[in-house]
Specification:
Length: 398
């Protein structure tokens, strides 16, 4: 007898999501990668607005390609009773419901967790919002940059002169990952108890959690953590240092590493005995002198030469790469991390998710065209597809 093919962890689970932008779509894409069926509910007047942030991926938005592979697109008008009825019928047969509409909007449309779970107590219902229910900012707009600012992340990111937001939507990503984690935990508990869950995830609280040591440092020292650029408030040397043709990031986190750096890598053993640099506490106290001493030595090598010397000595270091370098990264290629997926207009490369199961690969589905699955889902819900499509309550592909 042949052993059955291994299943993805969420095979057989269905998720209905009224979602847009980044946070909730990232959460549900995580679930679809793990095998879940995800029905993405979109507006009839163009769908998820992330579809049109740009059209750089052969006519499809980069955000949308990143976040929506493997999903089924259902375009219905939730302002119409018939449209809401379709989604409720699908939720009645689903395991999970996720939404990130404006605060209070889901409840006003009849998709509040309490209403949905009244007759479907095994449902896992997740509300993802900017600031959570209650509090003075409950109704405020919650774009990623704004939440980064409110969470203090911008306040500690950048240089001493210039605060900046992170180069990726950190608050969206943090809350999306916690949302997916919560769904998995709720389904695991449901397997033991039979009961679903009502879950709330706040972008603000997810981002403040990621503030971590900086938050505790401020609370118990009374000092705002400084913006350090590439440097580190508690470690030296820890920064970018010049080479003949570029720069290298070097981070030495202990005193033995310092001695190895200056003797085995930089051929400057005199620095090992300099009393200003013998311990990390002293190096931080004399950071400017330490950085200058290291920079004087690193500038004697090319970037490639220094990179090789640092790697051979086991010193933590990295080249500052541009995104094009990452796309061609030999580590990702050697580990076979790229797959082909379909989009509305072309076949494109997509990166496998970072969680790798030994016995089964993530489901790398195609990116759905707007309303691509509307007719099939209307029929699955048991309604007159032609009637809803002809009246504009539902929409198919453009």
């Amino acid at each position: 007898m042949h052993s059955p093919e291994p299943a993805l962890p969420l095979d057989g689970f269905t998720v209905v999501s009224i979602e847009q932008a980044v946070a909730a779509p990232l959460a549900t894409r995580t679930l679809v990668d793990l095998g879940a069926r995800v029905i993405k509910v979109e507006r009839t007047d163009g769908g998820d607005f992330a579809r049109d942030y740009d059209h750089v991926v052969h006519g499809t938005g980069a955000h949308f390609v990143w976040l929506n592979r493997g999903k089924e697109s259902l375009a219905v008008d939730l302002k119409a009773e018939e449209g809401r009825d379709v989604v409720k019928r699908l939720i009645a047969q689903a395991d999970v419901f996720v939404q990130n509409l404006a605060p209070g909007a889901a409840a006003r449309l009849g998709f509040g967790a309490e209403d949905l779970r009244a007759n479907h107590p095994e449902l896992v219902a997740v509300d993802l919002s900017g600031y959570g229910t209650g509090g003075p900012r409950e109704q405020r707009k919650a774009y990623d940059m704004l939440v980064q600012a409110e969470a203090g992340l911008i306040g500690i990111t950048g240089t001493p002169d210039t605060p900046v937001k992170t180069g990726i939507p950190t608050s969206d990503i943090a809350s999306g990952m916690y949302c997916a984690q919560a769904v998995l935990a709720a389904l695991l508990r449901r397997s033991r108890t039979g009961q679903g869950a009502t879950v709330e995830v706040s972008m603000l609280e997810a981002t403040v959690e990621w503030m971590g040591y900086a938050m505790y440092s401020q609370m118990y020292s009374g000092r705002q953590p400084a913006r350090m650029g590439l440097s580190h408030a508690s470690i030296a040397p820890y920064d970018a240092y010049p080479t003949k043709d570029g720069q290298m990031l070097i981070g030495v986190q202990n005193d033995s590493g310092w001695r190895t750096l200056v003797t085995s890598v930089l051929d400057a053993p005199q620095l090992a005995g300099d009393p200003r640099f013998t311990t990390n506490v002293e190096r931080v106290k004399h950071r400017a002198e330490c950085d200058a001493a290291v920079a004087a030595e690193t500038s004697r090598w090319s970037t490639v030469e220094l990179d090789e010397r640092l790697a051979k000595a086991g010193i933590p270091a990295a080249q500052v790469k541009q995104v094009a370098d990452v796309v061609a990264d030999p580590q990702l290629r050697a580990r076979d991390r790229w797959r082909k997926i379909g989009t509305e207009h072309a076949t494109v490369d997509a990166l496998l998710p970072p969680v790798t199961f030994a016995d089964v690969e993530a489901r790398m589905g195609d990116v759905p065209a707007f309303g691509a699955h509307t007719r099939a889902l209307l029929e699955e819900a048991g309604v007159d597809a032609d009637a809803l499509l002809s009246r504009g309550i539902a929409a198919g592909p453009r």
